[in-house]
Design goal:
Elements: H1 3-27, H2 30-41, H3 48-64, H4 68-87, H5 100-115, H6 122-125, H7 144-148
Helix pairs in contact: 1-3, 1-5, 3-4, 4-5
């Protein structure tokens, strides 16, 4: 496992756990969550269903590394929406209810989207984490100076 795939694997599992944890109370209390969304953010109540399903079931699938790139993209869209429509008015600071955490998750998910699910994933086990022709993805080339110092991508 290269450093890049290790980072991608850790980011994938971390983000999956975050979404599963945040999706669990939503999916088990759809009515209460819909009321909360409507009263606090002016969002239509029906929107809680796709958000809860994505966070709960998508979180589980992301941890397992199944349909990883699709889920990473969907979660990035969700976090962009949360940053714009829920957290933007509070500013940057996460401790003030801002969008800082949304941006951090988007960047972690971008790594997962670009690098892939990593070797410890269902996608890799079924061959979806490979290059289009079935070969292993080519390793990232590094500067020869860095290689002499023991750096691996």
């Amino acid at each position: 496992m290269t450093r890049a795939t290790l980072i991608s694997t850790l980011a994938r599992v971390f983000c999956g756990a975050v979404f599963l944890i945040h999706g669990t109370p939503k999916i088990f209390n759809l009515e209460g969550t819909a009321t909360f969304f409507a009263e606090n953010f002016g969002m239509p109540g029906w929107l809680v269903v796709p958000i809860a399903v994505l966070e709960f079931f998508g979180g589980i699938l992301l941890i397992a590394g199944f349909v990883t790139r699709i889920l990473a993209g969907l979660f990035m869209v969700e976090m962009a929406g949360a940053a714009l429509f829920v957290h933007r008015a509070a500013g940057w600071d996460v401790f003030e209810g801002g969008y800082e955490y949304n941006i951090a998750l988007i960047l972690l998910l971008l790594a997962v989207l670009l690098i892939g699910p990593g070797p410890l994933s269902v996608d890799r086990a079924v061959g979806w984490g490979r290059a289009r022709d079935g070969r292993e993805a080519e390793p990232i080339e590094t500067d020869p100076e860095l290689e002499r110092e023991g750096f691996e991508p």
